[in-house]
Design a protein that fits this description.
With about 325 residues, the protein is of the alpha/beta class. It has 14 helices and eight strands.
């Protein structure tokens, strides 16, 4: 019998949630995704030292203020890693806009266009790239414009149904609801509640979004992310895509029991109404959803911290 990773690949597109090229080679996902935290981890690996050096030299040659040089170093490093990953995966790489721009539409657009331009200069076409940004109202509106320009987007740090519905309205290519971080919040705030198995609120959230999209024929892809255990992954088998870290890919590859497909477009059912979102309605929904509001804010803050750490690493190389 095939192991569960092989079975999962037959019903869901597997995306590697890592910047570790060796792990990607081992597990052979279709796509891969990175973020500031994963890039920071990758920067500590000896194999990536040449890419750090190349990014540093490129940014210094480009010039500008010290902050501009550091920002360009990290962008270049992300693209260089993305290019290397695209030599391995047959599909796409997701590369993230600086989280500090999450509430600025124009700055997000500028950064996204810079990223796609750098990939194009490296010979990579738009259809192999997803530009990641946080699922703020500003991020969603920036993505709406980018999609019209032929630049596909991955809206990340998504925790609430309102965020998902607004992304679908905007014609976003893909969303990344964060299963594990939703679970974390509920365990911290409702410690006496059973959150195991099908009671996992992160799993329930992705299931609700997936079913809503399928029933209403939205084209936006649902990619579950941020897992805390393989049971969450098993319970979302059949989701459009799942982005999974190397540790859970390894664990799934060692399980050889049958894997049941939990989600499918054919069996999708949803009672949630479609709503045309404007900024006021979106912000009201977000304000009312304490979990989504808090996790979006802290998620952005966490990515900013790791972005600054990566820039500090870059700065120390240029001393």
């Amino acid at each position: 019998m095939k192991n569960q990773l092989e079975q999962l690949k037959q019903m869901t597109t597997i995306v590697a949630d890592t910047g570790d090229i060796e792990a990607i080679k081992k597990f052979k996902p279709v796509d891969a995704t990175t973020n500031p935290s994963l890039l920071l981890k990758a920067s500590a690996l000896p194999a990536y030292r040449p890419l750090l050096t190349e990014a540093k030299l490129w940014a210094e040659k480009r010039g500008g203020s010290q902050s501009e040089i550091l920002a360009n170093m990290t962008i270049k490093f992300a693209v260089l890693i993305g290019v290397e990953i695209l030599k391995i995966v047959p599909g796409r790489i997701s590369t993230e806009v600086d989280a500090r721009l999450s509430y600025d539409i124009e700055a997000t657009l500028k950064s996204a266009r810079q990223l796609i331009g750098m990939y194009n200069e490296a010979g990579i076409s738009n259809d192999r790239i997803l530009i990641k940004m946080a699922s703020t109202w500003q991020g969603i509106k920036a993505a709406e414009q980018l999609e019209k320009e032929g630049i596909n987007c991955n809206l990340t740090l998504l925790f609430g149904f309102g965020q998902a519905a607004a992304c679908a309205d905007a014609g976003v290519y893909l969303i990344s609801p964060f299963v594990g971080r939703i679970l974390d919040w509920h365990k911290a705030n409702h410690p006496n509640t059973d959150h195991s198995g099908a009671n996992d609120p992160g799993v329930q959230s992705v299931r609700d979004i997936y079913n809503f999209y399928k029933v209403n024929n939205y084209n936006t892809i649902v990619m579950g992310a941020s897992f805390r255990n393989i049971n969450e992954i098993q319970l979302l088998a059949g989701c459009d895509r799942l982005t999974i870290g190397p540790n859970f890919l390894e664990e799934l590859s060692k399980v050889d029991t049958p894997l049941v497909q939990a989600l499918s477009a054919e069996t999708a059912a949803s009672s949630k109404p479609t709503i045309a979102y404007d900024e006021a309605l979106f912000m009201n929904d977000l304000e009312m959803d304490k979990m989504a509001n808090e996790k979006l804010r802290t998620g952005i803050e966490g990515f900013v911290v790791d972005q600054i750490k990566l820039e500090s690493l870059m700065a120390s190389m240029s001393d």
